[in-house]
């Protein structure tokens, strides 16, 4: 399944990294000392139906459920200008300025494999790369650190629409050609930013591989993490290291599963990303608001880990009510409109425009936001909220939180500093 050549490559690089065991890297941000405080630029270079439902609704074809089908089921000449307009307007340099002004130090930018390679005949529409270059320039101009996050791999690594292709079961892990194409993209990205560590300190080689899908997926992911270490940390040659940090994802496994994985001194510059959401199961979405806060506070003690641990996605939303959050055409667990879910409460007033939110709900959003910030900073190396903007799901967005008062203008200016005591 795994070609021996890549195993050998990995062990050569492993040996090389052992030689420099006492030579920690200088990534341009004091990870582990300073707290990462950031926001994701979701729904920009990777479309997500729930972030921009209008782009999907405007197609009036209910089979267009992700960026793959957006390209597949429309003429190129219809789809391309819609995407170009979106890329030009959804995130601009003024967003970077607002993010920096809000006291944040990182942005995480999801991008799909198809920006680099559609040689498998995938129907995606290309054109994202100049916007990635713009983002790097804007990060440099505003002093923000940019994390490049490969959010979709060929064949899909999780089957979520946010991987580009919504599938009942992912196929990336079953296809050696697709895995090698992904390795090549990571090499391209690593080479692009290897001398810009001060602006792009981190590459995240794959978002949310579905480790719960079984041992084969986990075996492929582990090998892919070894190969990614070589590709990101040695972009020059096998004896010259970069200062770029590799951010792994926990593949939805408990952190203990990854104990001793790529740890110092043999490995340098590795961070672990974990995503914390409290709404994607019936049990979680049925918690009371007080229980959500209690669950958040418990992370103060459960994020201790032997790598830099960054909560790379989380949200102050406590329900899955946002339209299309579970996929175009699917309802929510919270109000029982998703298949096999049980009604907890009405979604009215819990999603959409902040102008419809009660002052009690806004107070809860502030408390829950602060509880998570406290826990993720105490327990880990920091946090990156999902997400900066959404068309009509203010409960999720950092920008709406700033505008409506449930997120402070300075993320250290807490109103409920003792909420987890
Ligand atoms: C909506 O779709 C039409 C084609 O059906 C296209 O011309 C138009 O640009 C689209 N508008 C948006 C905002 O996506
Ligand atoms: C593409 O455009 C042609 C000509 O306008 C039209 O006949 C065809 O139905 C379109 N195909 C799709 C998938 O929209
Ligand atoms: C593997 O993916 C490639 C595209 O990268 C495709 O051409 C090929 O058919 C796939 N193989 C299988 C067995 O699905
Ligand atoms: C590796 O790359 C570095 C940086 O470009 C260079 O200084 C060094 O000579 C190279 N080493 C080898 C063995 O090619
Ligand atoms: C709902 O539950 C039934 C019975 O357990 C199962 O067959 C079906 O696949 C489930 N549907 C979804 C969408 O999860």
TrEMBL record:
Protein name as annotated: Glycoside hydrolase family 5 protein
GO annotation (BP), single: glucan catabolic process
Keyword line: Glycosidase, Hydrolase, Signal
Keyword Zinc-finger attached: no
Family as reported in the entry's similarity comment: Belongs to the glycosyl hydrolase 5 (cellulase A) family.
One GO CC term, this protein: cell surface
Location of the Glycoside hydrolase family domain: 80-315
InterPro entries reported for this sequence: GH, Glyco_hydro_5, Glycosyl_hydrolase_5
Pfam family, one: Cellulase
Listed GO MF terms: beta-glucosidase activity
Signal sequence coordinates: 1-21
């Amino acid at each position: 399944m795994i070609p021996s050549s890549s195993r050998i490559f990995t062990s050569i690089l492993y040996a090389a990294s052992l030689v420099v065991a006492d030579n920690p890297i200088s990534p341009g941000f004091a990870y582990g000392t300073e707290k990462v405080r950031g926001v994701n630029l979701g729904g920009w270079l990777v479309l997500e139906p729930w972030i921009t439902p209008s782009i999907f609704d405007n197609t009036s074809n209910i089979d267009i459920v992700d960026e793959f089908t957006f390209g597949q089921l429309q003429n190129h000449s219809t789809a391309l200008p819609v995407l170009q307009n979106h890329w030009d307007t959804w995130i601009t340099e003024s967003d970077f300025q607002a993010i920096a002004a809000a006291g944040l130090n990182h942005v995480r930018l999801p991008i799909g494999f198809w920006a680099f390679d559609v040689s498998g005949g995938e129907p995606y529409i290309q054109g994202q790369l100049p916007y990635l270059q713009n983002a790097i320039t804007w990060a440099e101009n505003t002093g923000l650190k940019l994390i490049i996050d490969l959010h979709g791999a060929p064949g899909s690594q999780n089957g979520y629409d946010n991987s580009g292709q919504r599938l009942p079961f992912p196929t990336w892990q079953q296809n050696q050609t697709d895995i090698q194409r992904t390795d090549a993209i990571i090499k391209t990205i690593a080479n692009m930013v290897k001398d810009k560590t001060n602006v792009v300190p981190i590459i995240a080689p794959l978002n949310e591989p579905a480790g719960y899908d079984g041992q084969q997926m986990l075996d492929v992911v582990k090998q892919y993490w070894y190969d990614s270490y070589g590709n990101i940390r040695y972009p020059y040659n096998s004896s010259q290291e970069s200062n770029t940090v590799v951010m792994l994802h926990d593949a939805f496994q408990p952190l203990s599963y990854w104990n001793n994985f790529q740890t110092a001194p043999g490995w340098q510059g590795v961070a672990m990303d974990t995503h914390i959401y409290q709404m994607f199961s019936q049990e979680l979405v049925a918690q009371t608001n007080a229980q959500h806060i209690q669950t958040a506070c418990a992370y103060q003690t459960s994020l201790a880990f032997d790598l830099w641990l960054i909560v790379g996605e989380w949200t102050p939303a406590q329900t899955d009510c946002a339209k299309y959050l579970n996929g175009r055409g699917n309802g929510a667990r919270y109000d029982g409109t998703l298949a096999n879910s049980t009604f907890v409460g009405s979604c009215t007033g819990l999603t959409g425009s902040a102008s419809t939110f009660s002052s009690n709900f806004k107070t809860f959003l502030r408390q829950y936001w602060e509880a998570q910030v406290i826990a993720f900073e105490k327990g880990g190396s920091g946090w990156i909220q999902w997400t900066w903007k959404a068309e009509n799901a203010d409960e999720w967005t950092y920008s709406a939180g700033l505008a409506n008062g449930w997120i402070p203008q300075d993320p250290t200016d807490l109103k409920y500093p003792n909420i987890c005591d």
